[in-house]
Design goal:
This protein has eleven helices and ten strands. With 246 residues, the chain is of the alpha/beta class. The chain has two domains: 159 residues, Rossmann fold, CATH 3.40.50; 70 residues, no CATH class. It has a six-stranded mixed beta sheet with strand order 6-7-8-3-9-10, sandwiched between helices. A four-stranded antiparallel beta sheet has the order 2-1-4-5, covered by helices on one side. The protein is globular. Bound molecules: adenosine-5'-triphosphate (ATP).
Length: 246
Amino acid sequence: MSVSIEVDELTEPQLSVRQLHVAYGGIQAVKNLNLDLYAGELVSLIGANGAGKTTTLKAICGLLAPQSGEVRFNGHPIAGQGPWALVEQGLVMVPEGRGIFARMSIDENLRMGCYLRKDKDIESDIDTVYRRFPRLKERHRQLAGTLSGGEQQLLAMGRALLAKPRLLLLDEPTMGLAPIMVDQIFEVVREVSSMGVTVLLVEQNALRALEMADRAYVLDSGELVLSGPAKELLDNPQVQAAYLGA
Ligand code: ATP
């Protein structure tokens, strides 16, 4: 009996998306999407502009109501639960454009990440974020809107970590950043993943996204066209031609 429970825990996906359809009025943005993430995996979701990547993340985290289909997190359907309820359960998204509060300080932004927490470790966790991101510590009273794009992304990641995610959805975290900051953000993503947090990474930079992921899904015009181990997709001629500039 105990063996079968352990096996179930190992084999059940942490996130499971089944036959997901999402539309904006008459525009069908996501069609019949099936996707699984297992605890601790780093999975990339790649695709061209308008392929439906952001829409998928928004439907998973409760920002958009799907037309049909099911999203399960930790084995339970999460339809109709708002993003705040899902954050409380450990499903946290860092949106495209970062979603920082521009007129609040860095410190206040970080504290917003702890908004739903009731435990006693908040101050020490904020210290940990400041130790990891000394640039944020140096500027802790500065208004977040005056930070560079890369610093804002670090702040958004720090704030998300303070919500204690078990699954982190990252929407284009390196968009518009200088190469040195791109490297730093990917390093943080790798670190978060090595802490055991499951990561679903949406990236325009398909090469980097595939190089760092365990598995990946490829979306085209709202439909899943390929999926598999990231290393295999890197070698796939169809992926190379469409997304890797080969
Ligand atoms: P990008 O890489 O450019 O961010 P994406 O893969 O994230 O693209 P989505 O933003 O999910 O793609 O968009 C999927 C489709 O849905 C596109 O055709 C887009 O024009 C459409 N769409 C997205 N948001 C809206 C909206 N608020 N209203 C109407 N159509 C939308």
